[in-house]
């Protein structure tokens, strides 16, 4: 054997293909061959390797090659570099996936917002707590029961409509969005309640009803008299002899139109006839709603501290 090569010695000239040789001989010769198979294979397939001087140009991989030969192949630059490239690609891909996961978690909005992380306790003021024994619950009564919310581990309190109203539709027919109904107290009581709730770390939710007002609201009184910009604050339509202009129904099942003899037109109401719908296509109406929102927002800010 010349230096720098691998020599495979084979007794019967059967090519080493990596599988157990099939001794396809006839008669006794085949039996005898199998009896001594282990001993003969040890010699026949003995591989004489000069492990430090294999010729990569002449040696080809083959199935069943021993570890020593396999190691020679694995050390070839072609295999080694490919292996290292794949290894570092896997490491890089893993790092990219980890970084992307961290970035997504960091940049994503919180799973639960404040209004999702705690029950919201809704209070109907009139029946909750009567602080002055006049027979109706009020804002001071709510303030007196703050410990009740804390005992229940409630973080958010929703106080239903307490605007100045005619008490139609559970106080949702509002006469004035800028005042508290006398039944429930005063604006000073409202401010005091906000302060007390925030001092205890509670958030307050109040209603805004932009869809309609009470028919006693000043805007409606001015609108039915066609006064200036208020003329189109509500949805008016001609109706001959009080006959509704179409068959639209309110949520209560009757006609959504009501005749007003002062203006001699019908106005639209999705709810009760005492709750005429505002004309939200009128920019002046939207401005009025925005002013109400800003006013409430400013009150929160006045007293918010770290809670809003
Ligand atoms: Ca009361």
From TrEMBL:
| Limits of the Glycosyl hydrolase family 13 catalytic domain | 122-307
InterPro entries hit by this protein: GH (IPR017853), GH13_cat_dom (IPR006047), O16G_dom_2 (IPR045857)
List all membrane-crossing ranges: 85-107
GO BP annotation list: amino acid transport; carbohydrate metabolic process
**Which UniProt keywords are present, listed alphabetically?**
Glycoprotein, Membrane, Transmembrane, Transmembrane helix
Q: Which PANTHER family match?
A: ALPHA-AMYLASE FAMILY MEMBER, NEUTRAL AND BASIC AMINO ACID TRANSPORT PROTEIN RBAT
What is the recorded name of this protein?
A: Neutral and basic amino acid transport rBAT
Task: Give the source species.
Answer: Pelobates cultripes (Western spadefoot toad)
